[in-house]
Write a structure and sequence with these properties.
This protein is an alpha/beta fold. Helices cover 36% and strands 20% of the residues. The strands form 4 sheets. Strands 7, 8, 9, 10, 11, 14, 15, 16 and 18 form a 9-stranded mixed β-sheet that branches.
């Protein structure tokens, strides 16, 4: 995508996309647009209410004007959603080159923010989920062409921030679509080795270090919990370590941040096997790993002044004669022993090794893990928010603020010591599941807390309900790339 800037409606491309907010500023904006396009203002006001996702097409000679409704008081996420939906629905009708006009003065807030959301949404709407189809008879999306031109129309004073924001939106969309491909891939096309290869290729392309521990090194290092989950798999585990440091031209990094992502490439539940209904969606159980991959790639692309380390313990959780059994007691990298009550609570086992390894070997200022961890979080929040758990109020507040800015919502739940009984074991240091049909997400967080080596600024994000969802963009559940934008915003604000 080639992005240009102009301050006038004259000499424009074949189509102009005009985002319009509802509310008090709607009538003046429509009067202005009617005058510019030669339309009847009264009829335009009568037909177009700027409701979220509403589209009104106007014609002027050989040019199309698309009025795109954003609803009242649209936030970043609503703008992005409207543009993505438009791009998806109008892929067969969209004329290019296309312009995005902010000249009608209807949107409140910073113009650059709307431009970033618009570019990001337009490109995400061009994503094709049919990666493994032999033949796709559909016409390629016009915005999928690398040389397609998109022009930003705004006042001259907005030129630099708008062009910078458009570039950010484009870079974010490209990474998010790579994450879509990764999470949407079935388990026979995605194993620990391919996750490691994804990280290696990203590091090579964008300039961050990647180390991959294979089975022999994992054993020598003592990552016993990861090895235990991997016992039932035909594919050996991988322990992926990524490290980004900003170039000298950017300056000294402000913070060292450690990210740990759950990389279970398929989760059968092990011997505590899941019901067959919807088990095929368990190809998405590496959504936390995907968020960490995306955050590393975006930090490197944007050259953020943070020192960022990402760790992904990767394995599947399969059924085999060698699989973990309920009641087994296993070791861990931290030295703590774990009683396995439920083999379907495997994600917290591999995260335990990842968290301990991060805390002991990298000593980050901030420690954050992400995982599609519990059905309890889905039952609490549905598919609209992730669970946030933290032992540090300032870190929790920063993550919450990032979630509000990006629309990748978080809501904090407690980790009071009252819940320690949920992980108390008679035969080991801790147990991996309480066995009770209540407070499951909190119990999982308390388990992880036991492996952070007393770190004073830790947060756990349970993204089970938001990493893989129903949407208008696919006929079944599909990847959302949740966490990539959230973490990028959070890291940007740190710097």
């Amino acid at each position: 995508m080639v992005i240009t800037f102009s301050t006038t409606l004259k000499s424009l491309p074949a189509a102009v996309l005009i985002p319009v907010a509802a509310g008090d500023s709607l009538d003046p904006a429509l009067n202005f647009l009617a005058a510019e396009t030669g339309q009847a203002a009264r009829l335009l006001r009568q037909d177009f209410k700027a409701e979220q996702g509403e589209v009104q097409i106007l014609y002027q000679q050989e040019r199309r004007f698309y009025l795109l409704g954003l609803g009242k008081n649209p936030a970043f996420s609503e703008v992005l959603k409207a543009f993505r939906s438009f791009s998806h629905k109008y892929r067969q009708k969209m004329a290019t080159p296309i312009a995005i006009s902010l000249l009608h003065g209807n949107l409140s807030g910073e113009a650059a923010s709307w431009v970033e959301a618009a570019i990001n949404g337009l490109l995400l709407g061009a994503y094709s989920i049919g990666r493994f189809k032999n033949k796709d008879n559909g016409t390629p999306h016009p915005l999928a062409q690398p040389d397609v031109m998109v022009q930003i129309l705004a006042e001259e004073g907005h030129k630099t921030p708008c062009l910078d924001a458009a570039a950010r939106g484009r870079e974010m969309a490209q990474t998010q679509m790579r994450i879509f491909d990764l999470v949407n891939a079935p388990s026979n096309k995605k194993n620990p080795e391919s996750l490691a290869q994804w990280a290696v290729e990203s590091g090579r392309a964008y300039g961050f270090k990647v180390e991959v521990m294979q089975k022999a090194q994992i054993e020598a290092t003592g990552l016993h919990a990861l090895l235990a989950v991997n016992r039932g798999s035909e594919d050996p585990a991988a322990f992926i370590i990524m490290e980004y440091q900003p170039p000298e031209s950017v300056g000294k990094p402000r913070k060292k941040v450690g990210l740990v992502g759950k990389g279970v490439t398929f989760d059968t539940g092990g011997l505590s096997i899941k019901p067959s209904a919807n088990m095929h969606y368990m190809k998405s159980d590496m959504g936390g790993a995907a968020a960490v991959f995306g955050a590393l790639e975006m930090a490197a692309k944007l050259q953020l002044p943070v020192h960022l380390i990402g760790i992904v313990p990767a394995t599947d959780n399969s059924v085999d004669a060698c699989s973990l059994k309920p009641s087994d007691v296993i070791n861990s990298y931290s030295g703590k022993t774990i009683e396995v009550i439920d083999t379907d609570a495997e994600g917290r086992l591999i995260l335990a090794d990842g968290l301990s390894y991060m805390a002991r070997n990298f000593h980050p200022d901030l420690l954050i893990d992400l995982a599609t961890l519990t059905g309890s979080t889905v039952r609490t929040f549905g598919y609209h928010a992730a669970g946030l758990f933290s032992n540090n109020d300032e870190l929790a507040a920063q993550l919450y603020q990032a979630s509000e800015r990006t629309g990748e919502r978080l809501w904090r739940l407690p980790i009071w010591d009252l819940y320690k009984d949920d992980i108390k074991s008679d035969v080991a240091d801790v147990r991996n599941y309480s066995g009770k049909p209540m407070a499951g997400a909190i119990g999982a967080a308390k388990f992880l807390e036991a492996f952070i080596e007393g770190h004073p600024a830790w947060a756990h994000l349970d993204i089970a309900g938001v990493a893989f969802n129903d949407s208008e963009f696919a006929s079944q559940k599909s990847a959302t790339a949740y966490g990539v934008r959230l973490l990028t915003d959070f890291l940007s604000q740190l710097s």
